[in-house]
DNA sequence: TTTATCTACGCAAACGTTTGCAGTCAATTG
DNA sequence: CAATTGACTGCAAACGTTTGCGTAGATAAA
């Protein structure tokens, strides 16, 4: 154990603990001379304040929690980058919790977080989550919450999202203009607002171009890639007329590639694919994948900024602080005519 | 602020704080009846112990810190998955710190961590790091440390690594057997042991097959993808005879693809590429990338297990607990004859 | 009965920090 | 000279939890 604490410094300098504490905080109540002495010794002994004592006393932890479904996903890892960047600049620490899309884990995690461990929370809801009681409970306690991407509308707070309806529309329209007439929609979060928005965009585009909406062409995936590939294979087999796939999540696009390869369906000649994705190597795939790319890094940054600003000003976060960023469509060979 | 604390519970139940605390810990000193009453009220009021008070008193934080260069990298994100998995099972929380391969950030982070914020640390050293004074300082304070992948040999503790020398040899041999005679080696951590091991494997293979070692064919990359692509392009232009690339890091393989595409060099006909990588879509690239794949998830799990075991038993971690896992070579079209 | 043992609970200190308040000493003012 | 001010510093409480020790009452043993 590290026993370099204020008491130790105070003893060695023949000062009181209070003065040492104030000196290290550059309080105006301490003479320049004393400050120097204190700081010199602190540096020499490599003093680092005990975070827990400080947090306990000040009721501030300088820590934020990030609750996300998974980290092995380009969207979330880029978002974490943005979050960590902002947090570090403001001297905040980042606790990471993964739900693995599992509702029970999400509940357990939010329960932990009511313990005052964090000053604020950035969260992207698990796809399985359908009830929000745990989030309401969480909000009832101290920490401020900002949702990003997978938001929860039942909680009155700020959200950072992208223009999902438009993007869903745009993606579908892109496939239609490339000649697709039987477009499947693969998603993973049908019960979350983000999933609904994209789905509505998909439906709106179909309607605008006079194509029927066929519920059987909507596939609900999960976190298991093998299962997803099997589901997609089954769909393509059952409905051989499918000539376009709009994937709402990166992993479903990958599974679609595998399914098409397995069935010998040529991309883009027989099936065109477009997907929400932050895959850096999308352009190097065979064929290069057309993507709707969300500004993941910026989303992380902006969400963290809103959160930290609220924490520092001790003001509640208002829904009016919500932000909607724009995704971008990158046309590549997987949707070529 | 959440004011449901032991005091509150004690008052409502007409018990002392001590008894309430003990009841919640299932202490044998409390009657079954009282335990029930306490737990019932705790559940009703959604009591969650204050983590900071508890940590301060017990000098245990139930938190580990993970210090890695970046998260937007399949190796590290898979490793985090493994770490988080093990930590969660044991009731530990995970603080994430990113160095962005920057030495100064690494120093600042290790300084934070001397403050007793964490019980243990899992670390993969930044490629820039050449001095280890900050790590020695860190080790002098409480927290246990386990290194994984990018290890530091100067610190006496356990490491979880892969068979890097063998893999470097194997990768190079694979290229030679595929017909390459002028093999470039791209790396990012030449001054770290991991980089040296792979490099030695590379050199050993060259020697065994009677090929000369040409220092000009060794390229030291960094964290900037555009710069790396430019460097590789320059190398391929200056040395048009290069017919094989052995990349020590995923991002350098990606940059190699871009460089080759830019120069119109055909993969694998003119240049064959093999890389250390955990890229899930390696098989879907154009052409599919031959990889040496490290068991990233297991590395994370094993490192976390060693760390947590040591923390729980309060025993120091010995270098003899180090683990070497095996990487696997996946042959794909990027190295086809 | 006395003594010992056991059960169930409370008192109070301790963890290391922050901070309101009070105090000391010297310098300044009336 | 007394009174006031201001610059520094110290005392001690507080944050919420854990835990060594003490104790009251009950039961068992002597």
TrEMBL record, chains A, B:
<keyword id="KW-0804">Transcription</keyword>
<dbReference type="InterPro" id="IPR010982">
    <property type="entry name" value="Lambda_DNA-bd_dom_sf"/>
</dbReference>
<dbReference type="InterPro" id="IPR000843">
    <property type="entry name" value="HTH_LacI"/>
</dbReference>
<protein>
    <submittedName>
        <fullName>LacI family transcriptional regulator</fullName>
    </submittedName>
</protein>
<feature type="domain" description="HTH lacI-type">
    <location>
        <begin position="4"/>
        <end position="58"/>
    </location>
</feature>
<dbReference type="InterPro" id="IPR028082">
    <property type="entry name" value="Peripla_BP_I"/>
</dbReference>
<keyword id="KW-0805">Transcription regulation</keyword>
<dbReference type="Pfam" id="PF00532">
    <property type="entry name" value="Peripla_BP_1"/>
</dbReference>
<dbReference type="Pfam" id="PF00356">
    <property type="entry name" value="LacI"/>
</dbReference>
<keyword id="KW-0238">DNA-binding</keyword>
<dbReference type="InterPro" id="IPR001761">
    <property type="entry name" value="Peripla_BP/Lac1_sug-bd_dom"/>
</dbReference>
